[in-house]
């Protein structure tokens, strides 16, 4: 304990200061001081100090030795001795002062005596004794007088005799002599006393008792300070064995600690570290501090701030270390918590700023995209004008060179338009404007049409094939237009990079892929994997990563050689992802590539399939295949190279499949249908036209009837027109063919017309719609409001109703609801309740149809009041936005008149 | 080719393009023109004249409804505007349609002042369009008389890219 006290030089100094400040009663003063704070703790303090004493353990044999041999140890003793010496000095000083006073008094007394003698000799009449030196100061004289009064017992000498007589003087002399004697006697005694005192002082031998007391005080003081402090102190020898410890862990006994090292006493984390630290200090000879966290069985997890200093003996040899540890677990914990909080704060702040940055960037990007889209859109209109004009120009009489120039112009314009359309498509997807539509379609047909179309513009000796696994459903629901777009894109890409061999599409059903979330999964959905493969030039592996990036092509060489915008695959990928699927690619250079996309579809019930197929099997734009074709899983198309202008009809080759052949160019179609008088029936002729170049060698031409020719709205027509296969004839064809077809259609289309009802109140809209229907080859009935519509539906079995939403008398939504209610209940009660005057009719057709769902398509003006959601909610099957265009109408009819 | 016809044809084209560019017409008018063929050579003119008749009637009835400041039958005005909007949208009379949209908004909040202003605008726009189309038909007539064919194609991407509609319209 004492040893600890002296570990620090500064503390040593403090002790010195302390002892000089409170030389006599450090202990009591301290007690009094703290009594204020701890009123009841007076006696307790003592007790605790006693208890605390027990916390110390020391190797008593070696500790004194240690104290004697070390600088620190001896300094305490020196200190105590110095204290004692100081006190003695003080006492001596006091005694000397006293001596000085006495000496001066004696001198005064002598002076006085001398004066008296003089007075006596000269018989001065001075009543008072006035010191020679002090005449000037009255006060001083007074003081002197006073002092003298005090020092001398009685200064006034009482004389009985009469003044100035001999007797008087004699008497006075006598008494003065007596006083002098007394004074001399006193002086002598004092000197005696002084000598005696000096003698006793010298005889006051070793100050052991005092020193012991001081030591006890210091110890008590330390105990008082340290009794509750979370501090462990100790001294270890140079083998790091404990010689002394204060405030050890309570359960450890003396023999558990003394003479042992840390490692021998404790086990667990931190013990080794502290031992190493102590050893390091011992070796370096420099005191230092470190924070160490202990993880021991004995006291759990505790962090100590440890101070270790080396201890030297007087010969400056290291003999061990002093060590002091303060438990700072809570502080460390707090500090760490704070640090963590601060860190979290910083992280959050960083994230916040990052987020703001991202938001900013996103906004910028969106703005840029919007800008791009707007610009593209603005460019498209005038460019359409340019291309349109060029096309018109190509219908005029031109010489060969002019025509060539014009064709270059048109094809360049087409390319730019394609690029702009691609950009618009992309920005639509990216800005989330693109809406997916859910329509029923037959995957087999889609594959077939895509291949047919591709074959139609094929200029290479390639085999196109389609292969659909049996388990693929006949009818699924999805966005057929987009899926077609993807397929067409991938196929045309494949054809572009393939010079021989084959290009094909393979469909198969797969189990739910891992990237799909569970909520998408339900029993009616199916995942179809579509491979588009080719035997083309392939894609080098290093080009694969950027393949789906915008404006990127596998290499600059390819871009030059093959052209293209570099947007096609990006659009495909975006579309596939928009539909919840995934587009991937595998490829081998010179062997070919396979693009695979996986998409979820809902399986549609094909209930509308059986009853109307005979009725409409010859319908234009209606993909009604023969029953066996519905499930056919393999198609193959080959081009008719070199035969385009050879004769009026198709040349059949043995390579072709038995009953199918594909013409390479739409021109063939016109040639074929016009120049082939052998076709006996108008019907089959129509179908040939509709086939868009699809010729048949047998009578079963209608088998492949579909609206897939250049009249077709979707991508197919693009590929036709952009193919530029036949320079001279094509532009003429694209201009003139629709009209020719239309005429052919209307001639043939008289029998077995589908029945369509248009519910619309606006005369002009009716007129326009009617004219469009006429051009598409249909006629239709008109109802002017919802009530009329209900009556019409009741009397006639319609195949499709086009319903305006906003109408007087009864709006389209209500009319639809009532029609649906009739379909469910089989009676018109709901309509009658709603106030519709149901006319009685002999016609029972309505009842026959009661189980079928009548397709009702809304015509909305795209206002808020006429939202698509509301249309669906009221039982409508889909909607077309106004103004109605030929295109929209045709798509709608294609979809619902199958 | 007859230079007079060619000149007239170019004039016709230019005029038509200007009508699109100035926003009098939109794509729907192109649709309309596509519906016209030998069987119905005057289809566009018929529809358009029906439209103008309609306009005149509706505007008259609406102006009567809006005549008195008190108890305006906004419901009736609204139905008129709706009719007009549908018709103008169907024939591709873009400016008329656009005015109808703001007209309808005024109607919805029963703002008589706004309605009257819109009514005036609609009146102005449809008459303007009527004059313009009259000129166009006259040009058509002249081309036919000179023995030429009316150019069937004019700037519209619907002809070239039937499946892609402008995505950022409206």
Automatic annotation (TrEMBL), chain A:
InterPro entries: CheY-like_superfamily (IPR011006), HATPase_C_sf (IPR036890), HATPase_dom (IPR003594), His_kinase_dom (IPR005467), HisK_dim/P_dom (IPR003661), HisK_dim/P_sf (IPR036097), Sig_transdc_His_kin-like_C (IPR004358), Sig_transdc_resp-reg_receiver (IPR001789)
Coiled-coil annotated residue ranges, if any: 92-119
Catalytic reaction equation(s): ATP + protein L-histidine = ADP + protein N-phospho-L-histidine
Domain Response regulatory intervals: 755-897
Composition skew (Acidic residues), residue ranges: 609-618
Entry's EC annotation: 2.7.13.3
Residues bearing PTM 4-aspartylphosphate: 804
Keywords: Coiled coil, Kinase, Phosphoprotein, Transferase
Enzyme kind, highest EC tier: transferase
Name of the protein in question: histidine kinase
The encoding gene: A10p033840.1_BraROA
UniProtKB/TrEMBL annotation, chain B:
Keyword Transmembrane on entry: no
Compartments, record wording: Cytoplasm, Cytosol; Nucleus
Domain HPt: 40-143
SUPFAM superfamilies: Histidine-containing phosphotransfer domain, HPT domain (SSF47226)
GO molecular function: histidine phosphotransfer kinase activity; protein histidine kinase binding
Keyword Acetylation: yes
Gene3D superfamilies: HPT domain (1.20.120.160)
Modified positions (Phosphohistidine) in chain numbering: 82
Main location: cytoplasm
Record keywords: Acetylation, Cytokinin signaling pathway, Cytoplasm, Nucleus, Phosphoprotein, Two-component regulatory system
GO biological process: cytokinin-activated signaling pathway; phosphorelay signal transduction system
Xref: InterPro entries: AHP1-5/YPD1, HPT_dom_sf, Sig_transdc_His_kin_Hpt_dom
Assigned GO CC terms: cytosol; nucleus
Cross-referenced Pfam families: Hpt (PF01627)
Stated role: Functions as a two-component phosphorelay mediators between cytokinin sensor histidine kinases and response regulators (B-type ARRs). Plays an important role in propagating cytokinin signal transduction.
Domain remarks in the Swiss-Prot or TrEMBL record: Histidine-containing phosphotransfer domain (HPt) contains an active histidine that mediates the phosphotransfer.
The protein's name: Histidine-containing phosphotransfer protein
Organism, as annotated: Brassica campestris
């Amino acid at each position: 304990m004492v040893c600890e006290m002296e570990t620090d030089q500064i503390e040593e100094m403090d002790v010195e200061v302390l002892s000089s400040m409170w030389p006599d009663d450090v202990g009591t003063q301290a007690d009094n001081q703290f009594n204020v704070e701890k009123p009841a703790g007076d006696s307790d303090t003592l007790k605790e100090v006693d208890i605390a004493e027990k916390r110390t353990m020391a190797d008593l044999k070696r500790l004194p030795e240690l104290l004697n041999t070390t600088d620190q140890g001896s300094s305490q003793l020196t200190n105590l001795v110095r204290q004692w010496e100081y006190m003695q000095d003080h006492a001596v000083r006091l005694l000397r002062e006293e001596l000085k006073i006495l000496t001066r008094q004696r001198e005064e007394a002598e002076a006085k005596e001398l004066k008296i003698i003089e007075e006596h000799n000269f018989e001065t009449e001075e009543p008072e004794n006035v010191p020679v030196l002090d005449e000037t100061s009255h006060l001083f004289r007074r003081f002197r007088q006073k002092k003298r009064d005090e020092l001398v017992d009685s200064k006034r000498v009482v004389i009985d005799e009469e003044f100035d007589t001999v007797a008087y003087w004699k008497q006075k002399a006598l008494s003065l002599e007596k006083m002098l004697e007394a004074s001399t006697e006193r002086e002598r005694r004092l000197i005696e006393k002084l000598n005696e005192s000096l003698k006793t002082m010298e005889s006051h031998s070793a100050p052991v008792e005092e020193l012991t007391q001081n030591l006890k005080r210091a110890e008590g003081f330390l105990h008082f300070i340290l009794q509750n402090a979370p501090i462990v102190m100790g001294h270890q020898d140079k083998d790091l064995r404990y010689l002394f410890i204060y405030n050890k862990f309570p359960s450890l006994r003396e023999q558990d600690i003394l003479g042992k090292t840390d490692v021998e006493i404790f086990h667990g984390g931190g013990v080794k570290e502290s031992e190493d630290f102590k050893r390091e200090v011992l070796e370096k000879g420099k005191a230092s501090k470190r924070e160490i966290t202990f993880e021991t069985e004995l006291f759990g997890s505790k962090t100590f701030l440890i101070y270790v200093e080396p201890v030297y003996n007087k010969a400056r040899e290291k003999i061990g270390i002093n060590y002091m540890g303060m438990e700072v677990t809570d502080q460390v914990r707090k500090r760490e918590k704070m640090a963590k909080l601060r860190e979290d704060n910083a992280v959050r702040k960083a994230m916040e700023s990052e987020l703001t940055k991202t938001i900013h960037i996103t906004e910028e990007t969106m703005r840029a995209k919007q800008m791009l889209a707007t610009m593209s859109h603005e460019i498209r209109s005038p460019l359409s004008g340019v291309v349109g004009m060029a096309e018109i120009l190509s219908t005029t009489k031109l010489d060969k060179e002019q025509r060539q120039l014009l064709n270059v112009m048109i094809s360049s314009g087409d390319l730019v338009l394609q690029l702009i359309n691609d950009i618009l498509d992309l920005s639509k997807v990216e800005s989330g404007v693109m809406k997916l539509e859910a329509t029923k379609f037959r995957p087999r047909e889609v594959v077939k049409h895509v291949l047919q179309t591709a074959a139609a513009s094929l200029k290479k000796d390639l085999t196109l094939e389609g292969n659909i696994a049996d388990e693929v459903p006949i009818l699924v629901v999805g966005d057929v237009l987009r899926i077609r777009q993807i397929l067409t894109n991938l196929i045309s890409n494949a054809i572009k990079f393939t010079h021989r061999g084959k290009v094909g599409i393979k469909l198969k059903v797969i189990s739910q892929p891992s990237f799909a979330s569970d909520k998408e999964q339900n029993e009616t959905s199916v995942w179809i994997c579509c491979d588009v493969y080719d035997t083309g030039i392939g894609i080098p592996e290093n080009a694969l990563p950027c393949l789906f990036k915008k404006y990127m092509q596998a290499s600059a060489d390819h871009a030059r050689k093959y052209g293209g915008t570099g947007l096609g695959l990006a659009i495909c990928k975006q579309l596939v992802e928009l539909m919840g699927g995934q587009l991937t690619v595998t490829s081998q250079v010179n062997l070919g590539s396979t693009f695979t996309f996986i998409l979820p579809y809902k399986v549609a019930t094909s209930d509308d399939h059986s009853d109307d197929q005979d009725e409409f099997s010859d319908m234009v734009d209606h993909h009604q295949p023969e029953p066996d074709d519905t499930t056919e899983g393999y198609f193959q198309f080959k081009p008719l190279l070199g035969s385009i202008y050879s004769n009026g009809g198709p040349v059949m080759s043995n390579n072709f499949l038995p009953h199918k052949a594909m013409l390479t160019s739409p021109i063939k179609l016109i040639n074929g249908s016009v120049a082939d008088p052998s076709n006996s029936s108008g019907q089959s002729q129509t179908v040939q036209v509709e086939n868009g170049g699809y010729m048949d060698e047998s009578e079963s031409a209608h088998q492949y009837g579909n609206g897939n020719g250049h009249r077709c709205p979707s991508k197919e027509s693009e590929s036709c027109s952009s193919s530029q296969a036949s320079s001279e004839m094509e532009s003429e064809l694209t201009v003139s063919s629709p009209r020719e077809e239309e005429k052919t259609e209307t001639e043939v289309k008289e029998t077995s017309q589908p029945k369509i009802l248009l519910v619309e109140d606006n005369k002009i809209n009716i007129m326009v719609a009617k004219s469009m229907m006429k051009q598409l080859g249909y006629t239709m009935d008109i109802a002017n409001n919802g009530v009329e519509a209900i009556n019409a539906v009741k009397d006639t079995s319609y195949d499709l109703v086009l319903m305006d939403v906003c109408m007087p008398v009864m709006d389209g939504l209500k009319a639809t609801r009532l029609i649906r209610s009739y379909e469910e209940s089989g009676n018109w009660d709901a309509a009658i309740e709603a106030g519709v005057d149901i006319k009685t009719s002999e016609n029972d057709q309505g009842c026959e149809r009661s189980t079928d769902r009548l397709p009702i398509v809304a015509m909305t003006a795209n206002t808020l009041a006429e939202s698509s959601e509301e249309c669906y909610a009221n039982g409508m099957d889909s909607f077309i936005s106004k103004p109605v265009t030929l295109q929209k109408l045709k798509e709608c009819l294609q979809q619902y008149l199958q | 080719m007859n230079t007079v016809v060619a000149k007239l044809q170019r004039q016709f084209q230019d005029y038509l393009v200007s009508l699109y560019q100035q926003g009098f017409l939109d794509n729907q008018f192109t649709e309309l023109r596509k519906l016209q063929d030998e069987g119905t050579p005057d289809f566009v003119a018929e529809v358009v004249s029906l439209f103008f008749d309609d306009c005149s009637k509706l505007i008259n009835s609406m102006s009567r409804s809006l005549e008195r400041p008190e108890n305006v039958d906004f419901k009736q005005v609204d139905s008129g505007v709706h009719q007009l909007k549908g018709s103008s949208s169907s024939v591709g009379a873009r400016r008329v349609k656009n005015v109808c949209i703001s007209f309808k908004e005024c109607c919805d909040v029963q703002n008589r002042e706004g309605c009257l202003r819109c009514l005036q605008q609609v009146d102005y726009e449809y008459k303007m369009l009527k004059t313009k189309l009259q000129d166009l038909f006259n040009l058509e007539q002249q081309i036919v008389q000179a023995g030429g064919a009316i150019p069937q194609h004019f700037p519209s991407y619907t002809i070239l890219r039937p499946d892609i509609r402008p995505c950022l319209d409206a």
